[in-house]
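Appendix B. Raw example, untouched.
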Amino acid sequence: MNLRAAWKALWQRQTKASGVGPMLALQMTGQPLFMGRRYEDFAGEGYRKNVVVHRAINEISRSAAAVPWVLHERSAGARRRLTEHPLLALLARPNPAMARAEFLEAVIGYLQIAGNSYIEAVAPESGRAPRELWPLRPDRMSVLPGPTGLVEGYLYRVGGKEKRWPCDPASGQAPVLHLRTFNPVNDWYGLPPAEAAAFGIDQHNEAGKWNTALIQNGARPSGAIVYEPGEGLGNLDDVQFARIKSEIEEQYQGARNAGRPMLLEGGLKWQEMSLSPKDMDFLASKHSAARDIALAFGVPPQLLGIPGDNTYSNYQEARLAFWEQTVIPLLSHVRDELNAWLTPMFGEGLALDLDLDEVSALAPRREARWRMLTRAVQFDVLTRDEAREAIGFGKR
């Protein structure tokens, strides 16, 4: 009996469970639980229409997809790197329509937009190692909570059809892997960076719309309407005041009507306020919103071409920080989930890992590590064999 089966049998014999699990699943057992937010808004207003979000997500997903994967086998206490294995072949070509890079870009892109990403494993027979891996759109997937508060299945809806996958609450094993980010207000779904950056995205989009409308309408600044009653005329009555106010709100307010010329009636005069787009400082506001978006996604503004107060003194430092603080932690999360879900399907003693030595942006970190290990060997802190193992090489 392997370890996973042993844990499953132990769980089935136990009558104890989490005290809050049944409370979480109250009135939700077996029912689809939706995310509670609109994925289409994050994908549409964010990734499709906002250049900063688009570039930030592409920077993260493409950088992460470019990292090579390695497979190790542990036997008799020794770890050996495998160059050929069905699992490596599967990752190299997850399905007939996608290669590794495109597959990982989709998985990580969904995670950045929705906070959730799903991978389906397709096997020829039950209990066999999968032959294909498919990324699934998170807006079509629903989690099915069980009576203990743990997930008992997943439901995928598209084109009026449904597909269900069961999930073993004891081991968490299912034909679907659910990757998610930390969410302090939801027990089953992750919190996307796009949601944390929502205010910045709205501000950036509205600033762009406003500037575009100003250009289309001659870049005219705003002004004021002054009522100058002529001879025999008094103040505006309530009906006239309400009509003028309504026309202004409908025809002249908002980004769509920015700078639009006004057609005035007798007794009304347009007074220029002498405010230019530079005075209103839309550009600085737009760059501030862009920096907020970059901060939410963990991408240094320098890498996105956003001007302003740069945190890092040069591009190389910004690139290194981006990898160490954003890409590597994200890939480590994906690696650990794959090792818990996918790797055991191909046998025991296997472990996927990242080949970070192939990442050029991490060269300064590798050089510092080499210098540290060289000094450690010189001062007899480490042996040559220990230093070789520390950098991924075996003993001589």
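End of appendix B.
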